Automatic annotation (TrEMBL):
Biological source species: Hungatella hathewayi WAL-18680
Taxonomic path: Bacteria, Bacillati, Bacillota, Clostridia, Lachnospirales
Name of this chain's protein: Uncharacterized protein
């Protein structure tokens, strides 16, 4: 018996069959991404001046530069997501930074490349006093519409979240007809919860009685006063 197994037996433990297998390539790629964001943080810390309130958003430029050094699209997305998730960014005092026009363009580039990163980044920028939300209006108006014409439900939810945080309610209302036909039951449920559908969309949703629509129908009953007031009959029809 191996020493490792003896120790496990001593403490009444057993081996785990769930283990991640790393190839040389995957291990190297993982380390490469980690090295890049660590270098980014180091460079940005050097440039940051705590006594100033007009520091440049150097890290955005560094993100664009360093992701261009990665060959794989998946790695680029992982890099973007990781930078916005790490403590450096989450604890960064953005009130001590200024925002230039090119910062908005580079940020849009990053968000478009990895829509998932909106989950980790957009709330920080929305709370930033010097950040002009309206500079991103056209970007989200165009990209949200494009996402609704595809079948990537998660991406649609990322855009919905970011648009909601930024307060662009009219964009959400503008594309409610695309949303109601999107087959994205989670997104449809959010629209129902926030009262973003008109009577025409509600009528359409009521016509969807197949069992596969159970999730959105549950929320339809929950947030439609007419159906909720007669809940037993509504459940029977659905």
């Amino acid at each position: 018996m191996l020493t490792f197994d003896k120790v496990l037996e001593m403490y009444d433990l057993e081996r785990s069959d769930k283990k991640e297998i790393w190839t040389y390539e995957s291990f190297n790629n993982h380390n490469l991404v980690a090295r890049y964001w660590k270098k980014l943080v180091a460079h940005c810390n050097i440039r940051f001046k705590a006594e100033k309130d007009n520091n440049k958003l150097y890290f955005i430029n560094q993100m664009v530069y360093r992701m261009s050094k990665l060959d794989d699209d998946k790695l680029k997305k992982i890099f973007i997501n990781n930078v916005f998730k790490i403590r450096y960014f989450r604890e960064l005092k953005l009130g001590q930074f200024q925002v230039k026009e090119y910062d908005y363009h580079q940020l849009c580039f990053l968000l478009k490349y990895s829509p998932e990163s909106m989950l980790y980044a957009i709330d920080k920028f929305a709370d930033m006093e010097a950040f002009d939300n309206q500079k991103l209006y056209s970007f989200f108006q165009i990209r949200y519409k494009e996402s609704l014409r595809k079948s990537y439900n998660e991406e649609q939810l990322y855009y919905f979240y970011a648009i909601s945080i930024l307060g662009f309610v009219n964009i959400l209302e503008q594309y409610k007809e695309l949303v109601v036909k999107s087959n994205n039951q989670i997104l449809i449920s959010y629209y129902l919860k926030n009262g973003l559908f008109g009577q025409e969309e509600i009528i359409f949703l009521k016509s969807l009685i197949d069992e596969k629509y159970w999730f959105q129908n549950y929320h339809l009953i929950l947030y439609c006063s007419e159906l909720l007031s007669n809940i037993e009959d509504s459940i029977g029809r659905k």
